[in-house]
């Protein structure tokens, strides 16, 4: 069988997982990696013998990829995604699809015009815990969903040292979109109204002008209400780079899920670590887990022509909620979502 030619734009922390996934998938051939930073490309070249580019148009012209993964920083997905779509290439975009409703809508229009598939890497949909929650919610005896709570937080090292661009994103765009998307997916309902508050102090005091914490109340059309909390300032001593919880109250049940309680704990005199071994684990240089599954599923969806689990409209809806969260923080008022 002819392999699908794949390329990756953005060879940073998460782009490296896309690179690994395509290199280890029998159905794909990684034909190129593009990054604006030559140092990142040198690191890729050192590890793998792959053609690298600083110019996306040049990579497309020379390598003619069938699919492109876009793993550039949150605010810079739009440009490379637009270029790929205009060249009739299917794209898998890291979350968020883009950091404004307008950009998402433009990408959707372009994708329709060029008849290309756009996937968004909302990998929480692939988390075995989410799959279990969805199966339980779908049971007839669960009753109507009444209320939910979701948190997803990062240690402060993430915005301060991992992401040089964190000031151009926020806990809502980096973490919140995962939560907004997961709720939509689990309960198959749309947000009608958002009220949010946010605070800036610790990060802005370090010269990074973004929110430390964002708390949002989301009202859904079928009547359930949800609280979503996202912080970027957990202490670095927390034993994992992030933390997350989900509690759901239905008319008949109480469901709880906890990303911290994944069964592996390491203790030493100096450190405690609790890796989420279901997310991304490397063995013999091959990555596997629910952080990798969507990348392989996207290839499968291109081969089979079947729907990919998270598409551009899902990307748009999550960004619309994040935009409304920001608007509500700034105005101090609830924001209604029109569709
Ligand atoms: N870090 C994580 O844990 C994580 C997890 C899931 C998803 N993501 C998402 O993946 C995306 C990338 O995040 P990251 O953590 O890998 O960031 P990163 O800063 O480590 O990597 C981004 C890379 O993109 C490159 N770049 C920037 N603009 C570019 C452009 N126009 N063309 C080509 N390359 C460009 C940068 O030089 C950098 O190497 C983000 O949207 C993020 O939300 C990150």
From TrEMBL:
Domain annotation GFO/IDH/MocA-like oxidoreductase: ranges: 141-253
Protein name: Oxidoreductase domain protein
Coiled-coil blocks: none
InterPro entries attached to this UniProt entry: Gfo/Idh/MocA-like_OxRdtase_N (IPR000683), Gfo/Idh/MocA_Oxidoreductases (IPR051450), GFO_IDH_MocA-like_dom (IPR055170), NAD(P)-bd_dom_sf (IPR036291)
Molecular-function GO terms, alphabetical: nucleotide binding
Record field: transmembrane: none
One Pfam family of this chain: GFO_IDH_MocA_C3
Domain Gfo/Idh/MocA-like oxidoreductase N-terminal: start-end pairs: 4-122
Record organism: Sebaldella termitidis (strain ATCC 33386 / NCTC 11300)
